[in-house]
Amino acid sequence: MSEIDLQVPTAFDPFAEANAEDSSAGSKEYVHIRIQQRNGRKSLTTVQGLKKEFSYNKILKDLKKEFCCNGTVVQDPELGQVIQLQGDQRKNASTFLVQAGIVKKERIKIHGF
Fold first, then answer.
1. In the beta sheet, which residues pair with residue 80?
2. Interaxial angle between packed helices 90-99 and 56-67, expressed in degrees from 0 to 180 and rounded to the nearest 10
3. Residue 113 has pLDDT above 50, yes or no
């Protein structure tokens, strides 16, 4: 009998990339900008994944002044420091971070509806 290479289909895990904690040196670290629905029409924008050498409070102060909204820096045990802004500020926050030179545009991922 001849050897036959069988390819057994495996289950595809769409979240395998997100769950992989073994980040190699060549992998990119992304800044994630998400929106969370609160109650009714109220929403909350979160920015996570910024480098630790940045002063989160100074970035927050500039974001609040630029967009006329309130916000806070929250310490999360898994995610580290997360910036929270009131309202849907996803586009505004991404353009601000790029124009301020904090992060490059290709390293930003915007999540939400």
1. 76
2. 120
3. yes
CA dihedral 59, 33, 94, 18 (to 10 degrees): 110
Amino acid at 13: D
Strand-pair category, 43-48 with 80-86: antiparallel
pLDDT in tens, 36-66: 999 999 999 999 999 999 999 999 999 999 9
What one-character-per-residue DSSP string does 73-102 give? EEEETTTEEEEEEES--HHHHHHHHHHTTS
- Could you tell me the pTM of the whole model? 0.72
DSSP of the chain: -------------TTHHHH-----TTSPPPEEEEEEE-STT-EEEEEE---TTS-HHHHHHHHHHHHT--EEEEEETTTEEEEEEES--HHHHHHHHHHTTSS-GGGEEE---
C-alpha Rg value of the chain to the nearest Å: 19
